[in-house]
Amino acid sequence: MNILYISSGYARVYQFFDSCILTELKKFFGVRVEFFTQLQDFSGFQLICNQFKPDIVFTLLGDLLPIDTLNWIKDQRFRSVLWLTEDPYYTDRSIKILPFFDIVFSIDSGAVDYYKSLQYKNVYHLPLGTDPGVFTPGDKKGKVHDICLVGYPYPDRIRLLLLLLKETPYQIQVVGNMWRKQFFAKATDTNVSLLNRWVHPSAAAHFYRSAKIVLNTHRPYDEKTNQNSAGIINRSINNRTFDIASCKSFQLIQYMDDLPLHFQEHMEIVSFQTNEELIGKLDYYLSNEEERQSIAANGRKKVLLQHTFHHRLKRIINGKLN
Fold first, then answer.
1. Confidence band (pLDDT; 50, 70, 90) for 144?
2. What InterPro entries does the database record attribute to this sequence (predicted)?
């Protein structure tokens, strides 16, 4: 089987996704892989397709592909696969790309239901996976911080951290771009440490391993920079969930409807739905290290069994749609 993988064209974490996908595709027996990166080179794309003769052409997002390329993909005999990995936050963009692909996967089940309501019957739910070679366990001893949060300072995250600084005595590590501008003008507490920049996933893994509890909240569906005019409410967990679990780190995750599809509550993961519940569970699990470690270990086992990039790509290659 020949698979042509097209770069998303985006930087930072998407370059990491590209690398993970290419590495895993090459591990499948009987699969030959080519990688196309020059998205604006339509003639170059035609040439590589005519020479390589792919059985599957596969990409993430697809919104940077020129219309000539999209139209040509639609008319070919190979199986074209699109993986929408920013749903539901950019559904306004995604909806324009759907008609050009044979099979579409979305990371969010709410977005899948929306697309199906518009008569796109070829759309299926497929969360992102993780790379357990990058997100590896660390030393259980010597945790530096009580709580760690890695991500962008959305308003709900800022409010939550301000609440934790006010109501708890815990040491908090914050990692991500824009926090100094958005958050640290409001917070002068010595209990919080900041790395004010985007970090590579391998660096994020270090922070996950260095915290007793990783706080995992989700981007709001109605955040002002989204392109989600239909107001699709996200129902699925983020890829950070699998990354944290793969590190064998304990996480408190904001509850999402799809969480029980992937992890068993209180056995492999712990969630919260209110601020009061979060504070109560922080107090409890910071005082119960053995239980924390047991849940985290079970979470990593589940990831290795079901939630790596290899598992996701196996489903794409084999054409298993559900």
1. confident
2. YkvP/CgeB_Glyco_trans-like (IPR055259)
> Does an H or E element contain 269, and which?
none
Computed on alpha carbons and rounded to an integer, the radius of gyration of the chain in Å comes to 20
Q: Which 8-state DSSP code applies to residue 321?
A: -
Question: What is the DSSP code string of 175-210?
Answer: ESTTHHHHTTTT---TTEEEE-S---HHHHHHHHHT
Strand arrangement, sheet containing 2-6:
32-36, 2-6, 56-60, 79-84, 103-106, 123-125
Pick the CATH number of 2-129+309-318 from 3.30.160, 1.10.3470, 1.10.510, 3.40.50: 3.40.50
Which of 257, 28, 216, 246 shows the shortest CA–CA distance to 125?
Answer: 257
* pLDDT at residue 141, as a whole number: 61
Summarised one tens digit per residue, pLDDT across range 24-41 is: 999 999 999 999 999 999
Mean pLDDT of 2-15: 97
